[in-house]
Design brief:
It catalyses: 3-oxopropanoate + NAD(+) + CoA + H2O = hydrogencarbonate + acetyl-CoA + NADH + H(+); 2-methyl-3-oxopropanoate + NAD(+) + CoA + H2O = propanoyl-CoA + hydrogencarbonate + NADH + H(+). Residues 6-140 form the Aldehyde dehydrogenase domain. Belongs to the aldehyde dehydrogenase family. The chain contains 5 helices and 7 strands, in the order H-E-E-E-H-E-H-E-H-E-H-E. The chain has 141 residues and is of the alpha/beta class. The strands form 2 sheets. Strands 5-4-3-6-7 form a 5-stranded parallel beta sheet, with helices on both faces. Helix 4 (99-107) packs parallel to helix 5. The radius of gyration is 17 Å and the shape is globular.
Length: 141
């Protein structure tokens, strides 16, 4: 996924479909939505975050990552690698915690999208709470 994100710029160009009917053209724009967040599980502490934040960031968004409280070190190492690679400060942010951190992500008005991987119980909760707050929620349970 990380390798794919390195080549995604050509996919982000959008489309132009001229003359789809008389006097009608179609234009597609792909624009960043703002702040995206990811909530990752304990059993894949590197793989799942690497499926989340690179894609969100390369599409022009900033990212807030909440790793599992059981294995927070891996996310911190990934953040350090990204920082060492030259990513601007504030483009990837990491928040630690359990229920309060999840509720913060679901409720904060600046966060526009949430990606979650984990249990059914948590996924259903995050989907419901995030959706009620107008967020795009991708919940992989």
């Amino acid at each position: 996924v990380v390798e794919h994100t390195c080549s995604i710029t050509s996919l982000m160009l959008g489309e132009t479909l001229p003359s789809i009917t008389k006097d009608m053209d179609t234009y597609t724009y792909r624009l960043p939505i703002g702040v995206c967040a990811g909530i990752a599980p304990f059993n894949f502490p590197a793989m799942i975050p690497l499926w989340m934040f690179p894609m969100g960031m390369v599409c022009g968004n900033t990212y807030l990552l909440k790793p599992s409280e059981r294995v927070p070190g891996c996310a911190m190492m990934l953040g350090k690698l990204l920082q060492d690679a030259g990513a601007p400060d504030g483009t990837l942010n990491i928040i630690h915690g359990q229920h309060d951190a999840v509720n913060f992500i679901c409720d904060h008005p600046a966060i526009k999208a949430i990606s979650f991987v984990g249990s059914n119980q948590a996924g259903e909760y995050i989907y419901e709470r995030g959706s009620k707050n107008g967020k795009r929620v991708q919940s992989n349970m």
